[in-house]
User: Fold this.
Amino acid sequence: MDVLSRYEPLVEDFAAFEAACERPLPSVVRVNTIKADADAARAALAESGVDAEPIAWHDGLFEIDGQPGANWPYAHGWLHGQEEVSVLPALALDPEPGDRVWDACAAPGSKTTQLAALMDDRGLVVATDNNLGRISALRSNTERLGATSVAVTHEDARNHSLKPFGGDPYDRALVDVPCSCEGTVRKNPSTLEDWTMEHVTGIAGVQKGVLERAIQATREAEPSSTRPVRSPPRRTRRYSTTSSTPPTPASSSSTSRWIAVPASPSGKASGTTTASNAQSGYTPTSTTRAGSSVRSWR
Amino acid sequence: MSDESTRFDRLPATPADSESDDRPTREGVLEYWSDRFGVDPVTFEGYTFWERGSGKIWAFADAFDLDSPVDIEGLGMSFLRTRREHWKPTTDAAQRFGRAADACVIDLSADEAAAFMAGHDQEIPWDGDWGYLIVTHELAGRTEPIGVGLYLHGELRSQIPKGRRREF
Ligand SMILES: C[S@@+](CC[C@H](N)C(=O)[O-])C[C@H]1O[C@@H](n2cnc3c(N)ncnc32)[C@H](O)[C@@H]1O
Assistant:
């Protein structure tokens, strides 16, 4: 079966999409602002003889020639090899210094360390994964990058315990669930050979379970009436990247790519539609749980 | 399961708060970094120190003042080994906090730095204390710590862990 044909109803120019999937992925590094800034990293790459082109849409991303790991700034933890698109979810979650953040499926920690950097390494990032081998990669990344605000837990995220952290709910959560991996085809062309619908349906249950735990473990937004007048609205946001199975056979040709949850936006009643899904042009398909909304945008 | 313990115990503040005489204390850790490397204890305000297993000290940016003990896989970064008579900072701690050091810091030339990063021992003159040193080099106009070296008998021995060594 041609796995990617499932995407045809979703994509305007399918031929261009297929062509894009065949282009090899460029080597991209993210500057780790816990240890260095973009100018210093660029100068250090130049000193190390590595050609680096800044990526226009975000400060501190460079496309480089060759492997990310073989140069001085990498050895110092100034850089982390990270795909361009993988930088987006943490930016959308937009954590602030001092926040309590849960990264539910965290290994090997590209997004964990980016979250810690966005928070100036102040606050708490709890990084959970259920795979010990991958946790060891996560730990070596957090340590090389000098992230000291990260706590690592080994558990099934569906049963995540807040106890070690005092029991208080999180301000934000990122849910980067395991998936069917079609999206990694540019890095790993053989990924489509192992693709099965059974795996997709199986993993969808895990995805849902992790997302539900994240919703429980994240605090509700404060009602606007309790906020001091001039302070910005505190929003609870949960951001999840997943390809999950569609809920009904009728829509089985479509795949949800993002599940993002702005809960109680701007102090409005919970569960209301927000501007962001209007902008995105996707249609919300499901809403769950009192006080928070899950939208699966197709 | 890894063979490592998952229990982190927060270091007692001072020897008076400690139940045993040979457990390291927060005070002892701050004194060590200040006496040996000249790192101002203020640098570690906001951090708590935790022992995992015997003599493995971790530094954690503890914004929420966690209750000890904590049973998890990682808490901040591994920071210091206190099991032997001579304490030893980790590579990660030297990189993260070594910029604040002004004693027992040895600055290497480009070639020496490359050999150090590759894990080689080198004969290098040094008229300071023997023992563990923070090793730096120039990168992008800064003096940047690479890791920890053991200086003994005229030789600087690289302590870069095997998995982190690189040939440039
Ligand atoms: C897409 S990867 C995460 C990538 C990571 N967020 C990053 O940016 O480096 C998904 C991860 O989920 C983990 N995982 C799978 N099932 C899980 C579960 N039930 N609980 C926690 N983690 C799980 C896998 O081990 C894998 O590391």
Observations:
- Residues 8-98 of chain B form one domain.
- The CA atoms of residues 117 and 165 of chain B lie 5 Å apart.
- Chain B has two domains: 8-98, 104-164.
